[in-house]
């Protein structure tokens, strides 16, 4: 074993590797779950308001605001991910395209 790798370091590296192998899920699935949670929190809020349970109304309002914030963030990340994929595709197409000669001499040849 190299000098800078101790048994503790090796265990830590193994734990990191295991964490990286886990499925990270997908944004679309998380978005759907958050939307369902938001609908549920709103239903609880309406039912609590109808029954006059003020404490439960406040808890449901808090859950609704937290879920809404998380939902908005996931939508934003999804949009950024789509824009990044489009930029990467455009960059890849540009990288594989033949170079364009923009020198003044070539411009005069076409004039």
Average pLDDT:
82
State the share of residues found in helices, binned by percent. Answer: over 70%
- Tell me the fraction of residues in β-strands, as a range: under 5%
Seen as an oligomer or otherwise, the chain set is single chain
Report on the structure:
- Residues 12-22 have a biased composition (Basic residues).
- Residues 1-25, 91-111 are annotated as: Disordered.
- The protein is an all-alpha fold and 111 residues long.
- The chain has a domain at 26-95.
- The protein is built from four helices and no strands.
- Helix 2 packs antiparallel against helix 3 (54-96).
- The protein is flat and about 80 Å long.
- The termini are far apart.
- The mean pLDDT is 82.
Name the features.
mainly alpha; 111 residues; single chain
């Amino acid at each position: 074993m190299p000098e800078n790798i101790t048994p503790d370091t090796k265990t830590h590296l193994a734990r990191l590797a295991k964490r990286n192998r886990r499925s990270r899920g997908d944004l679309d699935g998380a978005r759907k779950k958050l939307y369902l949670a938001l609908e549920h929190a709103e239903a609880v809020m309406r039912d609590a308001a109808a029954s006059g349970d003020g404490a439960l109304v406040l808890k449901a309002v808090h859950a609704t605001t937290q879920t809404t914030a998380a939902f908005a963030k996931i939508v934003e990340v999804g949009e950024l991910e789509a824009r990044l994929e489009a930029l990467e595709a455009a960059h890849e197409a540009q990288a594989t395209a033949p170079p364009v000669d923009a020198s003044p001499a070539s411009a005069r040849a076409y004039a």
